[in-house]
Amino acid sequence: MDADEWRVIIDGRQSGLTRAALLQNGELLSFYLQASENRLQTGDIFYAEVTEERLAAAGWFLTLGDGTSAFLPRDKALHPDQMRKRSHLIVQVEKMPGRGKGAQLTEQIQIAGQGLVFLPFSHYSAASRAIEEPLRTSLRHSAAAWCVGEEGVIVRTEAQLLDEITLQNEFDRLRKRWNTIYERYQKMEKPGLVERPFTFLTSILNENHWPKSCTVYCGSTCDCESLVTAIRWVREETGDLFEKYGLEKNYQDALRRMVPLKAGGSLVIDSGEALTAIDVNSGTRHIRDDWEARALQINCEAATEIARQIRLRGIGGMIVIDFLRLAEEDDRKKVADALRAGFARDTETVKFFGFTAMGLYEITRKRQRYSLQDYQRDKENNTD
């Protein structure tokens, strides 16, 4: 990771919308959007109040102040049996609004750092599976020893590059930061925002495990931010940075349903409120001979491209893929393996559920942020 060249290009020229692109060694990985009207951001911490209990079996609707409400699922509450109407609590935004759904909250608050995540209420310790043993167990035990009472900790992948003293100092800083946040919450008299841990830029860096070396390009209209060490800021005179760095066409392509494949087929991506459906087509070429081999070739290329497109567009939630039909179980396994390999570098949690009885492949990807398709849908709804 140290030798990798990371770049974030921020384009704020569109009214009411800031766009960003993340590149690693020249490869475009993902687009990010921040619309000015999006008041909530993943990671935001709020003083909230329970407004109704009628759905208590599933969770509660909470007001966050200024007419904004969000949903707290029952399994994300610390003490669900004690929840009552007008109860006051401190919560964190876990998922941003999207697909016709409001934001989702949690009481299991996380304060993220570079190598650690501090958990003030979880009484739980874990370490990234990307860290090899025995270092993984050693780091987890060391971090767990710093916790007291209900505190917990998650050791991030980046921790393997840091020494124990540095990690303990970070743990102490995260605990101190949490204490400051909680004191601010206790002084508040009505629902509202307590803390916004991440700016647009730092949320991108955090999602990608804080690259060791990164250059950020931003137009003169962007506000300067306090950046961590090894992050270089390049101010550009022109605000049309997507056009300057050859990203505008990629961005426009990522808004389209159809994605052509080199093998001759195509993908059709339809993102609805409930789920995202992806159809793999064989294209205009009619396959007469050796269907199994040609379908396998198209499906394997499609699997790799599907993983790339999902991260590129920021798609999350339930995803159903209709691959070309294959008769051989070994061939279906090759497609599934290609899909898993395609997601190997994805920073979000992806779960694979395999082929259904109807031949559809099901996966889920953790949905935390505003996707390109969420923005397109909201834009179309506002113009209807």
From TrEMBL:
Native organism: Sporolactobacillus spathodeae
A Pfam family it matches: RNase_E_G
Name the UniProt record assigns to this protein: Ribonuclease G
Cofactor dependency: Mg(2+)
InterPro entries for the chain: NA-bd_OB-fold, RNA-bd_AU-1/RNase_E/G, RNase_E/G
Assigned EC number: 3.1.26.-
Sequence ranges assigned to domain RNA-binding protein AU-1/Ribonuclease E/G in this UniProt record: 111-368
MF-aspect GO terms: hydrolase activity
S-adenosyl-L-methionine recorded as keyword: no
PANTHER family recorded: RIBONUCLEASE, RIBONUCLEASE G
Keywords from the UniProt entry: Hydrolase, Magnesium, Metal-binding, RNA-binding
